[in-house]
Write a structure and sequence with these properties.
Blueprint: E1 4-5, E2 14-15, E3 38-39, H1 41-54, E4 60-65, H2 70-79, E5 100-106, H3 135-150, E6 153-156, E7 159-165
Parallel strand pairs: 2-4
Antiparallel strand pairs: 1-3, 4-5, 5-7, 6-7
């Protein structure tokens, strides 16, 4: 099974891989600047539906992460070994299987919608269903939730930005072989 590159222009979305920047839980980049996002073909089918659902509403998707090699999972785990937010790399998580992505919504001018917290903010405020974030953030989270679940994704309760295929653990952890290596040297 091979993963599919979901980069523009083939996919009408914006890619800003957070782990290629210091703007993440590790506080440092560990992906190369030219890293690309990849997904399992079934996740790509669902992503295409989500893109199509967002478009007539005037929104686009902005992807922060997709497939994550185990080395990347270890980098996150070493930065914050909190199983409420980071899958244990010894077991592998949905990202390591190519069936999960982290994302948000952007408006027609490319601005991220207010979601109440930033991406990768490890706090209970990042959980779905929070009423202690602004009404606008609640609406935006519910909009993203509706688009992604209507497209066939399951949400993760603790992270408003994380969506994955149902039964994610039924998919095998994907070896890096055959993909451009995203990790920094």
């Amino acid at each position: 099974m091979s993963l599919i590159d979901i980069s523009p222009p083939e996919f009408d979305l914006v890619v800003e891989l957070a782990y290629a920047t210091p703007n993440n839980i590790a506080g440092r980049p560990f992906y190369r600047a030219d890293a690309k996002p990849y997904l399992h073909p079934k996740a790509v089918e669902c992503l295409q539906v989500a893109i199509a659902l967002a478009h007539p509403l005037g929104y686009r998707l902005k992807v922060f992460d997709a497939y994550r090699p185990l080395e990347g999972q270890w980098a996150l785990w070493n930065a914050s070994p909190d199983p409420e937010f980071i899958a244990d790399p010894r077991k592998g998580g949905p990202h390591n299987r190519g069936v999960a992505l982290d994302l948000t919504l952007i408006d027609a001018s490319g601005r991220e919608l207010d979601m109440g917290t930033g991406f990768d903010v490890i706090t209970p405020l990042s959980h779905h269903g929070r009423t202690d974030v602004s009404l606008e953030a609640q609406r935006n989270r519910l909009l993203l939730l509706g688009l992604m679940t209507a497209a066939g994704f399951e949400f993760y309760t603790n992270e408003w930005w994380h969506y994955q295929l149902f039964n994610a653990r039924d998919y095998p952890v994907v070896a890096q072989a055959g993909l451009p290596h995203p990790m920094m040297d």
